[in-house]
TrEMBL record, chains A, B:
Keywords: DNA-binding, Phosphoprotein. Residues 148-213 form the HTH luxR-type domain. Transmembrane segments: none annotated. One of its GO terms (molecular function) is DNA binding. It comes from the Bacteria. It holds the Pfam family GerE. One of its GO terms (biological process) is phosphorelay signal transduction system. Residues 10-126 form the Response regulatory domain. This is Response regulator UvrY. The modification 4-aspartylphosphate is found at D61. The keyword Phosphoprotein applies.
Amino acid sequence: MSEVAATGISVLLVDDHPIVRQGYRRVLESQGDLHVVAEADNAAEAYGAFKAHDPDVVVLDISMPGASGLEAIRNIRARSPRARILVFTMHNEAVLVKAAFGAGASGFVTKSSEPSAVVHAIRSVARGERAMSDDIAHVLAADSLSPTGSVLDQLGEREIEILRQFAGGATTEQIATHLNLSVKTVQNYHYLIKSKTGARTDAQLVRLAATCGLTRI
Amino acid sequence: MSEVAATGISVLLVDDHPIVRQGYRRVLESQGDLHVVAEADNAAEAYGAFKAHDPDVVVLDISMPGASGLEAIRNIRARSPRARILVFTMHNEAVLVKAAFGAGASGFVTKSSEPSAVVHAIRSVARGERAMSDDIAHVLAADSLSPTGSVLDQLGEREIEILRQFAGGATTEQIATHLNLSVKTVQNYHYLIKSKTGARTDAQLVRLAATCGLTRI
DNA sequence: TGCAGCTCGGGCAAATTTCCCGAGCCGGAT
DNA sequence: ATCCGGCTCGGGAAATTTGCCCGAGCTGCA
């Protein structure tokens, strides 16, 4: 329970829901060795808070579709490669998990995990180890056994993100705003995704996204 | 701050994420007058826990869309009409909100609300009042400016048929051909269906059709 | 008889989609 | 060092669709 220095582990909490954040804080701080030194409620703030507090571990909830979560991971790691980032989200799609690790995350834990598993993961990544919850391990394992060139493999990160939000019901303008892009660019991606996947209709696109686990219905 | 009996308010927490649940518990219990008497992590358990503990307020996270959250609300209310249920979720679609209230919820609060707004809402519903967070009020207000009604019941035969084919991935021309209609008419139906259901996007339409069992994915 | 609602389509301005294009960036191959 | 290819980002312009209004014929119902 205390493989860590007497000073404990400092944590930066990133989540866009205030009350959720406050809940995590209480759970983590009740552990004794975990100290939440800062909170942030979006990717931009996350980077600022990281620079300001240099925490041992960043617990990052990219709950909203990947959004700029991957970007935040890259930004933080670009600044300090020793940063330990634990992604903590309700999503469990293999694409997302691989993207997160690819971006430099040290761990990936779903919210369906037991609290004890989460704090254990935090301690693990603080020690420099890689960590993931059991369900994520299963998802990755299953995924690695299927040589199925999923349709999603032909799509870039941006394209997947936009497809996810679109399939989730978001408007073109909403997506543009969320991702800070021009409406025109989102429209172009929309078209590009359709031609890449061969979908002739928005409805087909949604079904595609659903069958690929990009969105649930 | 204490319009409630000295015994305080007993709460049943329902959320499918253990750590989130534990976080809420801590936030609520730090209030003094709120006591979490039980937790559940799915709709079925929620009903059992309600029967066993008869809490003043059920705080229910129907995180998955449609899902069985509404069913849980109905079950609980069928058993005890005086039950107070506060829906607490990250979703803010008007359809969902109306469905929740229609099923018997007393309040609807999004996770982007301040923690204080959440505990305030709990106290409100405990007093028998209706409660909702500001963002939900805005969504409902905007929505109510075009009286939509429930959902599929307001659609005519033709409309349902066209929605089914559309959600199945059919092109406007294909639908027109299949039904022997002019493209223009199909377009008009498309538009009509959107305005009737309140869907702003084709993707939302597909999701709607799917949750209504009109199409499989 | 008259109202109400579904079905079917026309019209037309506004918005979006569809393609095609170039530019910057980066990583990998030569 | 250089080129190539892919991703990202947007402009432009024609084609299409949307959004919203309209009228007409049909039904069932009061």
